Structures are given as structure tokens and as C-alpha cells.
């Protein structure tokens, strides 16, 4: 089902960026702080920093003043000593940046020596050598009043003697790095009276906002943007450094901030240029921020394509092999197929690409890209994935969430046979009784004969609640929203459909045993107990963590500020036992039980420890194999009307998929406490109708255990993906999004535990202490893992900057890993803030590891438009019809038989899952001007069409290349790519065993700007709303 048109989002550039965080001066470390602020502003460099520098960058990303003590200690820096920022820049590149980051600063100059008069038979050029550089130190002369003039002086040919012959030594730019660092030679040495002395040159130098530099090519000159400036004020003997950084290098004028240790302020471009140019004279007389003794010292200029990458817009061309030959990669990706080397030639581009940095040359498999320090992944030779978890001092790890959803993720949701039908009746005022009778008829069949009740097209008006009270019953509507169940109830808080047995469970007498471990760590699958004599494999059990007043005090919940009865209540121990439903997976020995799912919160003897007891249901127990699918639910009244569309109560191994909900006051799908192993997927909640206040608009609520919400969408809700009081996990919200959000995503109140928020996109996301909100909500949750989330004001109703807040209660942790947010806050565990990590999905990777399946970052692309795997949403974020001959997504779909994204043609022909590629998964290129993405376009057998596939399997037929666009303004426009040729290699045994398939032509599938989901900047190729 397609998403209806959303209200126009505010331009990302309309809202100012938050000020950067400052850096604490540890003594005389202003030179270090100014340099770190400058390179932190370059995302490609930031993502390749190594510890402890990456730890400093993480603190900056978290929005707090960062300390550099770990870095200065490692490098042996005397913080009392003043140092030269230019010299330290070289040391930092050598010691603290990975080779990929150093490459961002690495260009080359061509050094040549030419004889002034060559004799007969003698070559005029006697030496030609390309020499790499990471910065250019240019001399300052009376004529070098601008950067271009200073560079011209630097590259001016010099006369010399070569083997007693008159010659000329010349240097010219051979290749430009993505980020050009120019150090102005402000410190001049002189020798007099047997004494060496250094003095500072105060020569004013005007900085260009755009710099064009020629390189040896028939192409136009390279254009660079001003990205950062390090200013020195003072003299050689004394002085101070600070930096100006441009957070929006693509925009005219940029978005500038001055970073002077912990003092950070927003400034204009005019202020930057005035202060950086400086004036002749001594320090202390007023002339801009720094005074007359302040001048630019190191200037960072960024290539347009690098600036686009940092702002979230990368020009690309998508190419594929022509013809029907799939070279054996038609159905699956494995180590038998890989590109070893590709040479592309065009009138505007020449690439000689070495894939060794991203493809394992022995196996042909894709190498993992940027990873978290808390969970690391390794791609195995057979395309499977292995994960390793970092433990804290007490042994806690991020839990395994992979056993959530229908049948614990071990089986696909079935498509059951239709056993009954019901048609809409025109003019019928209330179809409740007729629908309920049809449901009951299916429920009365023998269990093995039950199946789907198929609704005909049209609208069924429903006045009161419908119930499913038997297993094996599925309600199914017509595809694409052709069936609507319209609630006509005028009763506040009514529910349209309730699924559940109505049964209740309780403790089995005599089975309670104490947990004897002093400390059970998060992520553990085993428990030590007094005795396992009463337990067998498959027993339903409940683990109860005792709660003492000491624990309540330790997390501050007995002293919630401004919390007085009857409006607010402090927490009391007897109301806050934490319980988790599990099954016995193995009776290991007389005192050890292995569980079917991990512990998701520490159990400590110091707070009373815990216990285990068996559970039994009074009669039928939970329903199973119940489904609700392909239906549209709607409500036609405001506030006094049905609040929930679908509620699951005592249910397991069941599902809700492909439903739409319109106008309900509270939930589209509400999974209650007793729901278990239920999947909610590809569902949408639109425009809930109620006043916007507490107790309303919880679009997808999950309060059970081992439940999965996947591929869903919400618009105009409040807490769109949410959990309530003391919900015990594991539970997962995965690959879902929200727009026009009026409140945050995350655990809502009173200590939900063990939830993975995986690849969610929305407004605010928080795991924190809500204090006296509600009636004393306090800590919303613990062991809450936000993985590769995107938090942006574009998705909030207010349009204002949004925050990701990760705080941790005492004794437990909350995590923000690989999350990209307008603002970041909280004292919890933040890792790789501002940059998504590999694997893209923790849940999908954990499931692949547990089941032994190949793990794919992406799979084939012609998929249903219902959110999970939506091509335009996941690969090319909101890519519109910028190009005359269609976008990448449209052309891929047209190649697949015609039609546009989401049309039936593509959906019927291609079975596929996600399409997503992290822009940080970059491959090295022989040409510094270009970067190659670690993903591939493949053809699927007779279906045809360019479809994406990549991951641990590493199959590749053709490539998507990011190239510098030479169109209008350099930041967008049409590309002219033609006459491509590819050399295709099939993997053989050993380097000499490769076998070439010659002359495989490439077709240009599409072009535009790749706008990764982790970036919130504007795509210049998109049409404006």
C-alpha cells in the first residue's frame, strides 16, 4: 500500500544547525582543539578516526564539551607546551587517522625537471615524478595577498642546474584530494650573529569562498569550497589558536561557527573572512575577533563532491551489464562471483578502480564497513555473518533480539487458504453481527480446517467491537486497501477488533526456586537456581527480579522532583517487580537452566536477587496462527469514537500485516501484555483523530514479549512506536518510520526493559528519566538499544530540530549506536554518533547468525511500496522526478516490465527484501576525484531489470559509482556518461586463475543524487514541494 502524500516538509536548511560543542583546553592545547574542530567537521574524516581520537569525536557528537586528555596522554603531549598547529596536523594524520581518512587529504604534485636547451637525441624532460602530499605549505610574499596568488608563487617554475646544464624545476597539481589543506608560511626563519630566529609574518591574505584549481585534464578546473580556517593570533613566541568551521559548505554563505576552546559562537561568513584576512600590526589592537595580530594559518578547502557527501548529497550514476547474461548470479549471491577490477572510460570520467579495500580477494566477499565498538561483525566465506559483543566490567552485553516475531523468526508467515467469504452490502448501516457470525463460523471448524475469512471489496460499517476467540482464524481483505472496516462507534475508547482467548495464567504452586547467582548479566541465557528438579524442556516459566527500596533509591525513583500525590506518585518497591516470560530451552544440570531468550536486565543479589516459577493457563491459553491482513480500518468521528483498530491480547505466533488505519484516537495495532511472538509488518497509521495530549496517538504499541514491529509507517501521531509500564523484552521495532510526529519514539514510562529500536526514522527518540511527567513516569526504560536511527526535524510536526536522548539508570545501560540526529543528549552509551554502522540492522544480522543464513545488506529491488524495502525510500531517499528520463527507481522498475515504483508489474515479478546501502561503505579509487560504493546492480534471470544485491555474499555484476558532477554549479544537474566498458572477472583459484568475460557493455540505468537515510541535508536534484 502506498503512503498518501505527506504535507510538505520544511527545508532542512531553513532551521539553523545547533552550535558545535567545545573542547576543553588542557593547558596550552588551543592548537590541538582548533585542529580537531576543523577535521571533525569533515564527516569522511571523522568516521575513520581511531581511538582515542574517535572517543573525543563521540563526545562532540553527544553535544557536550569534550576533553582531549586520553589523546594527549597517548601521544605523549606536554599540555603545558605551545606547539605549531601545522606540524601537529602532520603528526595527527600519521598517528590517529586511518589510511582511508588520510587519503581524504592526500593529493599529488607532478615534479618535473626540464632542460632549457636539449641537445639532439636528448629528452627535454629529464625527470618526472608524482609526489604525494597531505598539505601544501605556501610562502607568503608581498604579492601573495590571496590564496590563488600564494599557490601561484608556490608552483612558480624555478631555474636550476642539472648536471651542469641550465634547467627549470617545476611543480604542478597532478591530483587534488577531496580536502585540500593549505598552510600559509607565516613563520620565517632568519640567521644572524650565529643565532637562528623565527618571526611571524602578518601578511594579510584574502580567503576565497570558492577556489578553482587546474589539474592535468581536459576537464574544467576543480572547484573547492571553504570548509574551515585555523586562525593564529600573536607572535612566534606567544599566541593563541582558534577555528572557524563551515557546517553547510554547499550553501551560499554556509553556516559558520567560531570554535575557541569551550567558547563557541555562530558567526557570519563576512566575520570569518574579515578576521581571517587580518591586518598588519601587533596583537591587541581591535580588528575583528582576534585583533590585529590574528590571521589565517591553515585553510581547509573541500571539493564539491566531498562537500556534497558531508551535506548528504552524493552525485551518482547507476550502471548495469547490458543483455540477459547474468554470469551465474541470477538467484543468489555467493563467493563464486565478484568484481576484481573495473575500468570505466567516458568523455568526462576515467576510473581505474581497485576493490581490494572492500572485497576480500581470497573469497570475493564484501568486507564489512564502519562498525560499532560494542558489536562487531565478520563476513564468513560462505556469506554468513558472525557477531562479537563487547562486555562491560560486569559481563553485560547487548542482548540477542533475533527470536522475536512469528515463531521466533524461524519460519515465514504463511498465506493460509480461504475457507469463507463475506461481501459488502450497499446501504447496510451495521455489519457487525454479520461479520461476527462469519468469524464464528470459521472458528467453529476443526482446527486443521480453519483458514481465512476473505472480505470482498467495499466498505463494511461496524458499530461495535468484533472478536476473534479461536486459533487458526485469519481475516483478509482485498489487496491494495480495497476492503474497509469503518467504525461508526461514538463511544469513547471503543476497539474495532479484539483478538485473544480471554484466558488467564498463574504461578504453578511449589515450583518457585531462588536464583543463586550473585549477578546475572544482561545477555545471559543461563540461570543458576536452587534446584531444577521441577523443570523440563518446554516449560513456560516466569523470571521475577525482586525489587527493594534500595534499588528504587539507587535510581532516584523515591525522590522524583515536584512529585506529590494525588497527581504524582513516588515509586514503591512492591509495585515494581520486573518479570519476563520465558521457556526452558535446556535443563543443563541440577542447578542450571538454559532459556529460550536472554536476560534483558541485570539481576543483582544486593537488591534482593530473583526467582523462577512455572506458569500455567487456566484453560485454552494463548491463541495461535491468527492473522489480520490486507484490510483498511477507519473511524469517522473525532475523539468520541473507536480508539484502537486492532488489539491483540492472549495471542502467540500470529501476525498483522498490510493494514491501514485512518483516524483512530489511539492505536493502529496494540499488542497487550499477554501477546507473544507476534509480528506486525507493513502496516500504516494515518492522521489519528483526537486532541493532541496524553493518553492518545500511540500508533504502534507493544507491551508483550518477543514481539516484532517491522516495516511500518505512522503519520500525525504522538508516540508512534512505544511501550508501556514494565514491559519485559526482548522486543523489536525494526525498519519503520514516522512523519508529522507530535512526541517521541521509545519506551514511554515506568521501566520497560530489553527493546531494540532498529533503523527507525522519526522525530524525537528517547530513553530517559521522565521525572514527574504523567503521574510519575520516571525512568522510561533500561537496556534500550537504538541502532542506526535517524532523528530529524523534517519528520516532526513542529519542523524544529529534534533530539536523540540516551540516559542510563544506575545499574543498567541504554544505548545509541550509529544514530544520526539533529541533536544528541544524555549520559547513556553513545557510539558512532552521526554515522551509521555495519551491519545496517542488528536484528537482521542476529537472525542471520542464529539461523545460519547469508546476511545481506541489500537485496533485489522491485518490491511492494509498503515501506519495508521500499526502493525510493530506502536507497534514494525521497528521490523525485528530477531527470527528464526518469529517476533510478523508475528506470529500474521500467526495466522490470514497465510502470512505476509500487505498481503491480514489479511486485508480481520480483520477490525481494530491503534495498539500502550505507554511503560510508566506500571503495578506494585510483582517481582521487571519485569514490566507488560497495554495492552492485544485478539482473534477476528472465525478469531482467537492474536490481541491487550486496552483503556478506558479495555478488556483483555491475557497480554504482559516485562521481564528481561537472553540471551547473557543480552540485547537481545532468551527467553525461557514455561509452562505458567493463572488464568482468569470475573468481578462479588463485590470482592467476581469474577468467575474463570480455566486452560486457554497461547500460546507464539512472542518475541523480544518492541521499542516504543518515543524512538530513537537502538534495539539490530534487524538485521542491
Explain what this protein looks like in three dimensions.
Its EC number is 3.4.19.12. Keywords: Hydrolase, Protease, Thiol protease, Ubl conjugation pathway. It catalyses: Thiol-dependent hydrolysis of ester, thioester, amide, peptide and isopeptide bonds formed by the C-terminal Gly of ubiquitin (a 76-residue protein attached to proteins as an intracellular targeting signal). Residues 1-19 have a biased composition (Pro residues). Residues 21-304 form the USP domain. There is one protein chain. The chain has 1025 residues and is mainly β. The chain is 12% helix and 34% strand. Strands 20, 21, 24, 36, 37, 40, 43, 46, 49, 52, 55, 58 and 61 form a 13-stranded parallel beta sheet that branches. Strands 3, 6, 9, 10, 11, 12, 13 and 14 form an eight-stranded mixed beta sheet that branches. Strands 15, 62, 63, 64, 65, 66, 67 and 68 form an eight-stranded antiparallel beta sheet that branches. A hairpin with a 2-residue loop joins β12 and β13. It is elongated, with a radius of gyration of 32 Å. 52% of the residues are buried.
What is the element layout, followed by pairings?
Layout: H1 30-40, H2 43-46, H3 53-61, H4 69-74, H5 85-96, H6 99-105, E1 107-115, E2 125-133, E3 136-139, H7 147-154, E4 158-162, E5 165-175, E6 179-185, E7 187-192, E8 195-200, E9 210-213, E10 222-234, E11 239-246, E12 256-260, E13 263-267, H8 269-277, E14 294-303, H9 304-311, E15 314-321, E16 341-346, E17 349-354, E18 375-379, E19 385-389, E20 418-422, H10 432-443, E21 452-455, E22 458-462, E23 466-468, E24 474-476, E25 483-487, E26 494-499, E27 505-507, E28 513-514, E29 519-520, E30 526-528, E31 540-545, H11 549-554, E32 578-589, E33 592-595, E34 603-604, E35 610-617, E36 623-624, E37 627-629, E38 632-635, E39 642-648, E40 651-657, E41 660-662, E42 667-671, E43 676-681, E44 684-686, E45 700-702, E46 708-710, E47 713-715, E48 721-723, E49 728-734, E50 737-739, E51 746-747, E52 752-758, E53 761-762, E54 765-767, E55 781-787, E56 790-791, E57 803-806, E58 815-817, E59 820-821, E60 823-825, E61 829-831, H12 842-851, E62 856-858, H13 871-874, H14 888-895, H15 904-909, E63 922-923, E64 931-938, E65 947-951, ...
Parallel strand pairs: 3-6, 20-21, 21-24, 22-25, 23-26, 24-37, 25-38, 26-39, 36-40, 37-40, 38-41, 39-42, 40-43, 41-44, 42-45, 43-46, 44-47, 45-48, 46-49, 47-50, 48-51, 49-52, 52-55, 53-56, 54-57, 55-58, 56-59, 57-60, 58-61
Antiparallel strand pairs: 1-2, 1-5, 4-5, 6-14, 7-8, 9-10, 10-11, 10-14, 11-12, 12-13, 15-66, 15-68, 16-17, 18-19, 27-35, 28-35, 29-34, 30-33, 31-32, 31-35, 32-33, 62-65, 63-64, 64-65, 64-66, 67-68
Domain USP: 21-304
Pfam family, one: UCH
Keywords: Hydrolase, Protease, Thiol protease, Ubl conjugation pathway
Amino acid at each position: 500500500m502506498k503512503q498518501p502524500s505527506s504535507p510538505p516538509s520544511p527545508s532542512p536548511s531553513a532551521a539553523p544547525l545547533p552550535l558545535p560543542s567545545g573542547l576543553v583546553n588542557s593547558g596550552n592545547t588551543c592548537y590541538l582543539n582548533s585542529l580537531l574542530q576543523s577535521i571533525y567537521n569533515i564527516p569522511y574524516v571523522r568516521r575513520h578516526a581511531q581511538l582515542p581520537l574517535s572517543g573525543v569525536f563521540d563526545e562532540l557528537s553527544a553535544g557536550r564539551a569534550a576533553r582531549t586528555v586520553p589523546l594527549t596522554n597517548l601521544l605523549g603531549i606536554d599540555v603545558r607546551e605551545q606547539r605549531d598547529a601545522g606540524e601537529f596536523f602532520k603528526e595527527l594524520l600519521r598517528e590517529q587517522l586511518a589510511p582511508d581518512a588520510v587519503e581524504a587529504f592526500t593529493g599529488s604534485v607532478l615534479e618535473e625537471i626540464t632542460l632549457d636547451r636539449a641537445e639532439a637525441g636528448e629528452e627535454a624532460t629529464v625527470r618526472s615524478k608524482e609526489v604525494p602530499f597531505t598539505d601544501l605549505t605556501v610562502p607568503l610574499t608581498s604579492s601573495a595577498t590571496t590564496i590563488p596568488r600564494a599557490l601561484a608563487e608556490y608552483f612558480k617554475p624555478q631555474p636550476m642546474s642539472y648536471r651542469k646544464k641550465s634547467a627549470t624545476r617545476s611543480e604542478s597539481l597532478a591530483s587534488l584530494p577531496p580536502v585540500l589543506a593549505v598552510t600559509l608560511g607565516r613563520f620565517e626563519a632568519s640567521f644572524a650573529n650565529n643565532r637562528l630566529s623565527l618571526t611571524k609574518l602578518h601578511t594579510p591574505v584574502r580567503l576565497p569562498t570558492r577556489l578553482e584549481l587546474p589539474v592535468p585534464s581536459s576537464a574544467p578546473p576543480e572547484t573547492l569550497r571553504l570548509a574551515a580556517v585555523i586562525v593564529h593570533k600573536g607572535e612566534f613566541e606567544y599566541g593563541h589558536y582558534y577555528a572557524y568551521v563551515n557546517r553547510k559548505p554547499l550553501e551560499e554563505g554556509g553556516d559558520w561557527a567560531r570554535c575557541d576552546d569551550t567558547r563557541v559562537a555562530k558567526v557570519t561568513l563576512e566575520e570569518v573572512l574579515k578576521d581571517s584576512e587580518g591586518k598588519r600590526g601587533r596583537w591587541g589592537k581591535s580588528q575583528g575577533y582576534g585583533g590585529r595580530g590574528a590571521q589565517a594559518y591553515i585553510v581547509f578547502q573541500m571539493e564539491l563532491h566531498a562537500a556534497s557527501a558531508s551535506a548528504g548529497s552524493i552525485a551518482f550514476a547507476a550502471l548495469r551489464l547490458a543483455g540477459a547474461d547474468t554470469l551465474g548470479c541470477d538467484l543468489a549471491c555467493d563467493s563464486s562471483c565478484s568484481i576484481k577490477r573495473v575500468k570505466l572510460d567516458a568523455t568526462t570520467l576515467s576510473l581505474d578502480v581497485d576493490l581490494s579495500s572492500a572485497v576480500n580477494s581470497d573469497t570475493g566477499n564484501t568486507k564489512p564497513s564502519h562498525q560499532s565498538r560494542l558489536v562487531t561483525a565478520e563476513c564468513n566465506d560462505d556469506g554468513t555473518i558472525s557477531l562479537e559483543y563487547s562486555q562491560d566490567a560486569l559481563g553485560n552485553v547487548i542482548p540477542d533480539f533475533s527470536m522475536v516475531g512469528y515463531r521466533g523468526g524461524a519460519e515465514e508467515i504463511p498465506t493460509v487458504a480461504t475457507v469463507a467469504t463475506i461481501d459488502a452490502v450497499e446501504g447496510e448501516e451495521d455489519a457487525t453481527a454479520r461479520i461476527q457470525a462469519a468469524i464464528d463460523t470459521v472458528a467453529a471448524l476443526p482446527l486443521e480446517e480453519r483458514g481465512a475469512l476473505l472480505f470482498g471489496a467495499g466498505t463494511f460499517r461496524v458499530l461495535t467491537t468484533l472478536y476473534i476467540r479461536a486459533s487458526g482464524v485469519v481475516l483478509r481483505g482485498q489487496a491494495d486497501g480495497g476492503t474497509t472496516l469503518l467504525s461508526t462507534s461514538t463511544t469513547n475508547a471503543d476497539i474495532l477488533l479484539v483478538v485473544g482467548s480471554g484466558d488467564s495464567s498463574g504461578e504453578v504452586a511449589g515450583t518457585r526456586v531462588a536464583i543463586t547467582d550473585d549477578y546475572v548479566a544482561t545477555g545471559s541465557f543461563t540461570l543458576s537456581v536452587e534446584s531444577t528438579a521441577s523443570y523440563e524442556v518446554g516449560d513456560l516459566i516466569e523470571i521475577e527480579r525482586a525489587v527493594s527500596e534500595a534499588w528504587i533509591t539507587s535510581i532516584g525513583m523515591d525522590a522524583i522532583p515536584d512529585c506529590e500525590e494525588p497527581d504524582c506518585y513516588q515509586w514503591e518497591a512492591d509495585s515494581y517487580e520486573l518479570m519476563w516470560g520465558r521457556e526452558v530451552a535446556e535443563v543443563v544440570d541440577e542447578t542450571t537452566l538454559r532459556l529460550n531468550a536472554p536476560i534483558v536486565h541485570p539481576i543483582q543479589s544486593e537488591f534482593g536477587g530473583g526467582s523462577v516459577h512455572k506458569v500455567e493457563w487456566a484453560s485454552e491459553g494463548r491463541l495461535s496462527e491468527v492473522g489480520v491482513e490486507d484490510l483498511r480500518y477507519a473511524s469517522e468521528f473525532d475523539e468520541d469514537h473507536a480508539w484502537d483498530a486492532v488489539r491483540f491480547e492472549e495471542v502467540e505466533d500470529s501476525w498483522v500485516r498490510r493494514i491501514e488505519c485512518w483516524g483512530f484516537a489511539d492505536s493502529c495495532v496494540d499488542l497487550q501484555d499477554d501477546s507473544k511472538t507476534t509480528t506486525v509488518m507493513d502496516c500504516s497509521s494515518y492522521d489519528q483523530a483526537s486532541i493532541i495530549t496524553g493518553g492518545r496517538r500511540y500508533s504502534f504499541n507493544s507491551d508483550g514479549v518477543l514481539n516484532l514491529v517491522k516495516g511500518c509507517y505512522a503519520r500525525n501521531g504522538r508516540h508512534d512506536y512505544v511501550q508501556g509500564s514494565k514491559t519485559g523484552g526482548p522486543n523489536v521495532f525494526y525498519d519503520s518510520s514516522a512523519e508529522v510526529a507530535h512526541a517521541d519514539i521509545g519506551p514511554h514510562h515506568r521501566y520497560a526493559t530489553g527493546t531494540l529500536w532498529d533503523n527507525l526514522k522519526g522525530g524525537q527518540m528517547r530513553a530517559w528519566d521522565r521525572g514527574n511527567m504523567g503521574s510519575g513516569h520516571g525512568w522510561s526504560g533500561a537496556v534500550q538499544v537504538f541502532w542506526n536511527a535517524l532523528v530529524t526535524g523534517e519528520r516532526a510536526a513542529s519542523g524544529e530540530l529534534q533530539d536523540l536522548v540516551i540516559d542510563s539508570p544506575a545499574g543498567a545501560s541504554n544505548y545509541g549506536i550509529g544514530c544520526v540526529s539533529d541533536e544528541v543528549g544524555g549520559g547513556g552509551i553513545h557510539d558512532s554518533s552521526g554515522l551509521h554502522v555495519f551491519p545496517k540492522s542488528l536484528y537482521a544480522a542476529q537472525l542471520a547468525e542464529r539461523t545460519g543464513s547469508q546476511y545481506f545488506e541489500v537485496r533485489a529491488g522491485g518490491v511492494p511500496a509498503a515501506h519495508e524495502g521500499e526502493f525510493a525510500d530506502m536507497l534514494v531517499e525521497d528521490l523525485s522526478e528530477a531527470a527528464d528520463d526518469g529517476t533510478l527507481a523508475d528506470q529500474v522498475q521500467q526495466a522490470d516490465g514497465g510502470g512505476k515504483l509500487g505498481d503491480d508489474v514489479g511486485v508480481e515479478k520480483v520477490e525481494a527484501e530491503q534495498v539500502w546501502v550505507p554511503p560510508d561503505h566506500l571503495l578506494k579509487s585510483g582517481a582521487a576525484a571519485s569514490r566507488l560504493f560497495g554495492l552492485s546492480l544485478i539482473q534477476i534471470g528472465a525478469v531482467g531489470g537492474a536490481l541491487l544485491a550486496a552483503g556478506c555474499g558479495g555478488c556483483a555484476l555491475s557497480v554504482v559509482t559516485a562521481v564528481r558532477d561537472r553540471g551547473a554549479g557543480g552540485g547537481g544537474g545532468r551527467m553525461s556518461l557514455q561509452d562505458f566498458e567493463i572488464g568482468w572477472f569470475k573468481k578462479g583459484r588463485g590470482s592467476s586463475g581469474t577468467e575474463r568475460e570480455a566486452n560486457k557493455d554497461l547500460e546507464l540505468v539512472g542518475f541523480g543524487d544518492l541521499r542516504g537515510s543518515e543524512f538530513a541535508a537537502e538534495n539539490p536534484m530534487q524538485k521542491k514541494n
